[in-house]
Amino acid sequence: MQALANLNGQQMPLAEVKIPALDRGFLFGDAVYEVLRVYQGRPWLADEHFERLARSLQAIRIQGVDVVRLRRRMLETITAGRFQEATVYIQITRGAAARSHSFPAQATPLELLYVQEFDDPYRSARLTGGAVSTQPDSRWDRCDIKSTNLLANVLAMQAAKEHDCVEALFCLPDGALTEGTHTSFFGVLEGAVLTAPNSNAILPGITRGLLLKLAASAKIPVREQVLKRSDLGSVSELFLTGTTSEILPIIRVDDQTIGNGKPGPITRRLQDAYQQAVADYLRS
Q: Most buried of 18, 28, 174, 205, CB within 10 angstroms?
């Protein structure tokens, strides 16, 4: 099935989309984006994703985008393509204008979304656990904005791939472990789930937010606390969360084995809770 796009309200095959050469998203990364998972034809956690998109637009001062209309276009595109298991990519740029760093006096935001089938690359690692590679966190100081400025993420992920890892884990100079290139990071210490508190240093992950609710429902203690590299010898479990990775157990960081080298019981409980939440949504 071919990927289907909607560009400024016009539906077309993704391969036919054309973006102006002077678009500020292309020239400057002056844009924000979202990625949603579609299960059985229904977008998952859409309210949360579109609320975060609206916050990102406000944060970088892109105005004039009707988020409700954009959501309607997404649903129409999913239906038109008869997608079942899929992902949705949405990107909003400030629009096309003569190249200048400051905001153009007049520019119409470009609104692009596309839907494509999803062939799950994390299925095996979700069962057996994956490895991550730590990389220096050289990103800008507003990681809470879901911006398309992803060069540091790209370089870190490529380094991880070259080490046969499923993800890269960003590490600050003081040893603090913040998040992955496209995932949120969690550890389990003395029976409690630990994750970095929301701040400008991490993205407020949508799946992260769901997991905190699932943990509370399962009466699993949670502490918003930064984990450091020096803590890795003490934690019993590590896992990542993300739109496409869902809940992904981590059994090795660089050359260090985590716990007993297998996905842990709390990770498994949360994986089961996640699948139940999806099933409940699809029945609703």
A: 205
> pLDDT tens across 129-170, in order?
999 999 999 999 999 999 999 999 999 999 999 999 999 999
Domains of the chain: 4-117 (3.30.470.10), 123-283 (3.20.10.10)
Helix (H), strand (E) at residue 10: strand 10-13
pTM, 2 dp: 0.97
Instruction: List residues with catalytic annotation.
Output: 146
129, 263 in Cβ contact below 8 A? yes
Beta bridge partners of 242: 246
| DSSP code per residue over 193-259 | EEEPPSSTTS---HHHHHHHHHHHHTT--EEE--EEGGGTTT-SEEEEEETTTEEEEEEEETTEEPT
The position carrying tokens 């999803």 is 118
The rounded distance, in Å, linking the Cα atoms of 209 and 186 is 12
Element holding 93 (H helix, E strand): strand 86-93
